[in-house]
Structure formats: C-alpha cells, structure tokens
Amino acid sequence: MEHTLKVYIYKDGKKPIFHLPIMKGLYASEGWFMKLMQGSKQFVVKDPRKAHLFYMPFSSRMLEYTLYVRNSHNRTNLRQHLKEYSEKIAAKYPFWNRTGGADHFLVACHDWVCSAPYETRHHMEHCIKALCNADVTVGFKLGRDVSLPETYVRAARNPLRDLGGKPPSQRNILAFYAGGMHGYLRPILVKQWKDKDPNMKIFGPMPAGVASKMNYIQHMKRSKYCICPKGYEVNSPRVVEAIFYECVPVIISDNFIPPLFEVFNWNAFSIILPEKDIPNLKEILVSIPAKRYMDLQLGVRKVQRHFLWHGRPLKYDLFHMTLHSIWYNRVYQIKPR
C-alpha cells in the first residue's frame, strides 16, 4: 500500500460540513483522519487520473450540527444535501460513474439516529464507508465497509495525553464501567452489578468536572478488565479507551464488527461476550486463568500503537491502519475480468 496507493480528495463541498476536521471529542476519529489525509504528501495526488481511491471529505458530526432541526425527527434535508453532493461529483467528474462510486470512500463517526449508514444508504450505496457504527443489521456490509475505531480525544493538541496504565500486578480492580444510560443494555448492566460486589466497579454517569474525568481515567488505569457495553448504537469509545489505558476490553454488543478485524485477532487482546451473559459477568472474568489474563494484557499493549493518532502519522498508526483497511476492502471487491 505505501508504495502503490494514491488518493484524490474532492475539493467540492463547502465548510463546515466538508473540509473542516473536528479534532476533539467523541467523534474525533473522522476529524483526525480528514486532517491527516488532507496533509498527506505520500498518498494524496492532485491529478485524479492517477488515483486508485477517491475521498469525499465530509463530517457526519457537522452534517448533523449544521442541518438537523433539533427534535424534528426529520432527516430529509440531510439526505438531500448528500444526494446533491454525490450527483454533483458524478456530473462534474468521470470517476464516479465508471464504478458506480465503488472506488470512493467516506469516513464517518457520528453514532446517533442520523448516522452515516442511514444517510448514505441510497445515494452512496456502493461507496466504501469507514464507520464507527459498524452494525451489520443497519447497512454495514462486510467485505466493503470498514469498522472505524471510535476514539475519544480529550486534547486535540496532544491526543496521547495520559497514555498507558498500571502494570498487571498493580491493577486491583477486577472490572470497571461508568457512563451514561444510553440504549437498553447499559441500564441492565448497572442494575445487575452496581453496588453488588466490591470487585465490580460498575457505575452509572460520573459527575461532571475535571476531578471526575481524572477519577474515570484512574479507574481504567487500575482495572484488569474494562466493560464496553453498547449504547444507542453498537459501537463504544470505551473499546479504544481501554486499549489506550492498557485495560483488557470486555465488549458486550451483539452485531458489532470490531475495528480493523481484517488484520487483528481480537480474541488475543479482548473478551467478547454476548449480551445475555451480563448476569454471569463476574463468574466469566474470575474463571479466566492468570496466564490467560497476562497474555491478553500483553496483547493490548502490543496492539496499542495501532489505535493512536499522531500529529505526524507514524507507520502502522491508526491513520495508516484505517487507510489500509479501506484499500484492502477495495482490492477485495475487484473482480477478475
């Protein structure tokens, strides 16, 4: 890929929906990818005739923020905006029509009801979509789409702040979760385990404020297992947060496709449980042998570098891994003639 792949970035589309990367917060993955892709001298070409892939640099976060009328439950204007954009590049350039958009891609991380799978289903059906909401039941297609890691970037200038955690011998909390009661699963988790066992630090929302955020981070740094239940959608930023703080992620989300699954064996550094196993959560974790836990935690530390953003991309970091998955899926789609 590093020696071959060339990408053309469409200049069409106006800010803030297009060309404006959001580098901080819950949906920062799409912003960091956009920023680094726009600045890449290695992969980006100015002549679209030399490109293997075509990037449509829109932000699903800014699409929602700019066009959605709060509490209207009406997404017609969002769909229309993307429809007009795709029709414009199809009319202006020859590249879309020759493949039906199959060599075009977008990167989107907004996870609510206005998420990218729905809004792009009709007008960008054949495009490769790198999505945080990698749910096979709502339009995510294996072999074409890419499961994008959802990274909660707390400091845009330093995305690696507070990286790492305690060594295994100093992780004295068996399992930790704290967060909002989004969706149907988290209330079940909290009802089952909150204040039920001193080794199971399962909470609801933590109070606002810096001290609370640091308490949340310190719990992750001191826990053996970090519980990552789905919210409204199948994805959760806690999966990458756990890896960031070197805590073994326990993913509880049926129908979720883990990020970068084309490359990684997630069983080597995470526990994936069906939602029905929440009542047996402690029993399952306690039954994991010490040697198995040590191997999982070492696996987390080994893959950690692949889930990190850098101001200047490093080989095998999250920018390269995401682009590789997009390129891999495009190559996979091409049928021999």
The outline comes out as globular
**Helical run tally:** 11
Strand content: 5-15%
Widest sheet, order of strands: 1-2-3-4-5
In round numbers, the mean pLDDT is 91
Describe the main β-sheet briefly.
5 strands, parallel
Q: Provide the helix percentage.
A: 25-40%
Order of helices and strands: EHEHHHEHEEEHEHEHEEHHH
Radius of gyration: 20 Å
- Uncertain spans, ≥5 residues at pLDDT below 50? 112-116
* Secondary-structure class: alpha/beta
Summarize it.
It is built from 11 helices and 10 strands. The chain has helices at residues 28-38, 60-67, 76-92, 95-99, 116-119, 185-193, 210-222, 238-244, 281-286, 290-303, 318-333; strands at residues 7-9, 53-55, 104-108, 128-131, 146-147, 173-177, 200-202, 223-229, 248-252, 271-273.
Describe the protein:
The protein has 11 helices and 10 strands. It is of the alpha/beta class and 337 residues long. Strand 6, helix 6 (185-193) and strand 7 (200-202) form a beta-alpha-beta unit. Residues 112-116 have low confidence and may be disordered.
Essential attributes:
single chain, 337 residues, alpha/beta, 5-stranded parallel β-sheet, 11 helices, globular, Exostosin GT47 domain-containing protein, glycosyltransferase activity, transmembrane, glycosyltransferase
Q: What does the secondary structure layout of this molecule look like, with pairings?
A:
Layout: E1 7-9, H1 28-38, E2 53-55, H2 60-67, H3 76-92, H4 95-99, E3 104-108, H5 116-119, E4 128-131, E5 146-147, E6 173-177, H6 185-193, E7 200-202, H7 210-222, E8 223-229, H8 238-244, E9 248-252, E10 271-273, H9 281-286, H10 290-303, H11 318-333
Parallel strand pairs: 1-2, 2-3, 3-4, 4-5, 6-7, 6-8, 8-9, 9-10
